[in-house]
Amino acid sequence: MKITTATTALAATAGVLLGTDGAAAANARFCSSQSDICYSEFNAEGLKNMNVVYRIATPQAAQAAPYDITFQIVASRNMGWAALSWGGTMVGHPLTVAWPNGNSVTVTSRMAKWVLAFLSPAIGHTYPNVYSGATYTILPDTGVNGTHWTLSAICHGCSQWSTGSKKSISPYSTSVQLAYAMNSNQGVVTTPSNPASQFTYHDVFNYFRIDYNAARDPNVEVSS
């Protein structure tokens, strides 16, 4: 299946370019028999022997951000929710959060902000509220089976965003830092059918790197 969107090649002329430093990421390669898309993947270790696999595919024709990113999140069926930070940290970057909802999967975009605790030197962050700057096209291989759930989608707004300053990820970057989080318990999402639902905080989080240049695939085209 070929994914087709309007093709553009807009250069990022201002702001912050993310993910351009460090050694090349060493990622496994996964090719979907359902979509003919090949992804770079990372296997994130969770609790209770439940892991989450994150897969990224970028448009072969992309020259600069913004461009769409095709991705998958594959989690054990009993995983409460799993999330991906496109900027490598939780605060100030788009967060993709997904969870099972019966035989389907719900996805939402969130963003957290820094806050200074009142009368305290401690700095924390807000609960990740709904963020409208990243949207999704859900692909047919999204679903739930007897062992795991899969979100397969195209993200519009995950290669470039602005939170006061413009932030971009080059499609040529060989080492993009991303971050993941998850909650390995069931019943941690208040209303699973609602993308704006509240959910319990993570019990695991960490960082990883993806080679966006190696993740290029001719079956993924550049966005508007």
From TrEMBL:
Signal peptide region: 1-25
Domain Cellobiose dehydrogenase-like cytochrome: 30-219
Keyword Signal recorded: yes
Entry-linked InterPro entries: Cellobiose_DH-like_cyt
Domain of life of the native organism: Eukaryota
Keyword Hydrolase: no
Alphabetical UniProt keywords: Signal
Protein name: Cellobiose dehydrogenase-like cytochrome domain-containing protein
Species this protein is from: Thyridium curvatum
